[in-house]
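ok posting inputs for the PPS job
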Amino acid sequence: MDDTDLFLLNFKGFHFERTLIDVDVLENLDDFEIRDDDVFIITYPKSGTIWTQQILSLIYYEGHRNKTENVETLDRAPFLEYNIRKVDFSMMPSPRILTSHIPYYLAPRGLKNKKAKIVYTYRNPKDILISYYHFSNLLVRLQASDNLEQFMKQFLDGKVVGSLWFDHIRGWYEHKHDFNILFMKYEDMKKDLRSSVVKLCSFLDKELSEEDLDTVVRQATFQNMKYDPQANYDTILKDEVGTRNDGCFLRKGTVGDWKRHLTVEQNERFDRIFQRKMKDFPLEFTWDINEQ
Ligand code: PPS
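and the output
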């Protein structure tokens, strides 16, 4: 057993965070009862999960939009496998918004029968790497790294929660016909949040007035979420999960931060692996917001 195994639990070839996972939940994932109007947010870690949770909960629930309900984003769209607040999913009112990092092959049977909708948010993997590096050093339940090189090796070996990014996105994309799934690109959301919200509404069959759309967009900006205690995870991380430093979950929220961190050699190495693994992969990635 190396240090990595203290933090990771391998279930059917996929790495989960050991201390937050309930193996019973994993054993029963296949039978998890799906409702027709469920919507799942599925992501590889650090790809824009909380952002999508926030947007979808604002689209679906007027009480969140007009702030008459005081519910944290995590509880509006709880994690299926990291059920840290022990939500009884069967008691959640419909439509339920549920969140997960699972790979396509662990998805509940009902999802494979296209019973519910899935929003899969993806992000360029170099920014994920940097975001994940900071997050791993922040959270006591993740393995800290002395430097980026050490973390990059783990990330590229899939020895992190969520396993290999390449496998996660490829798996979901190549099996997209088995699911009712929409792929949302983090960088597109960053470039034009309003259009992204409109796209989501159309997929979810939700009609919002122009005014409501404006409200969703306003409340889902990085600046708003960072200072919104319901959305920024500050209390949850510090009090319930445990942190090592004063870092924030909503750290920067930008595109292209990797340029400030990767050396030329690291970047070239990353590119070589990316070319090899993602050859012929149809989705396009945006590495820098100014490139378009
Ligand atoms: S997790 O741990 O998997 O749930 O993390 P996840 O929520 O997927 O990813 C966290 C990163 O998303 C950024 N974020 C945002 N970016 C832009 N706009 C908004 N509104 C927003 N909300 C969250 C967050 O800052 C993390 O990225 P980094 O690069 O670390 O800042």
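notes: The CA atoms of residues 127 and 257 lie 6 Å apart. The mean pLDDT is 95.
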